[in-house]
Amino acid sequence: KNQVEQSPQSLIILEGKNCTLQCNYTVSPFSNLRWYKQDTGRGPVSLTIMTFSENTKSNGRYTATLDADTKQSSLHITASQLSDSASYICVVRPNSGAGSYQLTFGKGTKLSVIP
Amino acid sequence: DTEVTQTPKHLVMGMTNKKSLKCEQHMGHRAMYWYKQKAKKPPELMFVYSYEKLSINESVPSRFSPECPNSSLLNLHLHALQPEDSALYLCASSSGQGAKTQYFGPGTRLLVL
């Protein structure tokens, strides 16, 4: 069964500090992994997308890493801001095929940045 | 334009009401999706439309009725809902049903009284 596990479930950090969120997945075969930011009551917004052959990708203060051998990904946030407070969801898409529309969502990490 | 729009942003309805949620995209995408998301849970896929035809129905109760009038619009008609149907309803689109990226709308927050 395809699964995506995220840790920690929640995290509180001081403004200006860095943090790293983790994602482990069992989706196979694997097409791509995406990190989304979701504010409460709003739709997910894509931060990064990584395919099987990519190890790291940055988007401003967000840097995602991927180890396809161990099926692990991380999202590193640098110099956090109050506006980074949100849920961060790891989403994995299976490889092309009949089920490729069926994304597997993690439960998310709820990040709170406090002044 | 890489935006998926949804209206209304918020909706409160009684169990006997009939209402509709609307979703629109102008990216030329041929696949559109409805998801339901309860608080603190990941989104759950409800329906997939591919080339304006219903492709996937994830065993959703008939009180939810999707409609795709054209390639840019996706509606979700609601009738005789239950309080447990209260949730955030997300629309998404992609270039094709198996495309790499699904773009999400901001969602409609629905409360059923």
Short overview:
The complex is a heterodimer of chains A (115) and B (113). Chain A is 0% helix and 57% strand. Chain A has strands at 4-7, 10-14, 19-25, 30-38, 45-51, 56-59, 62-67, 72-77, 86-94, 104-105, 109-114.
Strand content of chain A: over 45%
Give the helix level of chain A as a range of percent. under 10%
**Mean pLDDT of chain A, rounded to whole units?**
91
Shape of chain B: globular
Total E-strand runs of chain A = 11
Element-level helix/strand string of chain A: EEEEEEEEEEE
- Figure out the total of helices of chain A: 0
Give the uncertain stretches of chain A in residue-range form.
Answer: none
Taking the alpha carbons of the first and last residues of chain B, their distance comes to: 36 Å
Helix content of chain B: under 10%
Oligomer: heterodimer
Number of strands of chain B: 11
Q: What structural class do you assign from the helix and strand content of chain B?
A: mainly beta
The backbone outline of chain A, from C-alpha atoms, is globular
Characteristic terms for this protein:
heterodimer; A: 115 residues; mainly beta; 6-stranded mixed beta sheet; 5-stranded antiparallel beta sheet; 0% helix; globular; B: 113 residues; 7-stranded mixed beta sheet; 4-stranded antiparallel beta sheet; 11 strands
Write structural notes for this entry.
The complex is a heterodimer of chains A (115) and B (113). Chain A has 115 residues and is an all-beta fold. In chain A, 0% of the residues lie in helices and 57% in strands. Chain A has strands at residues 4-7, 10-14, 19-25, 30-38, 45-51, 56-59, 62-67, 72-77, 86-94, 104-105, 109-114. Chain A is globular. The mean pLDDT of chain A is 91. In chain B, a hairpin with a 2-residue loop joins strand 7 (64-70) and strand 8 (73-79). By secondary structure, chain B is an all-beta fold. Chain B starts with a strand and ends with a strand. Chain A binds chain B through residues 31-32, 34, 36, 41-46, 49, 89, 93, 96-97, 100-103, 105-108, 110, and chain B through 4, 6, 31, 33, 40-43, 45, 48, 55-56, 88, 90, 94, 97-98, 100-107, 109.
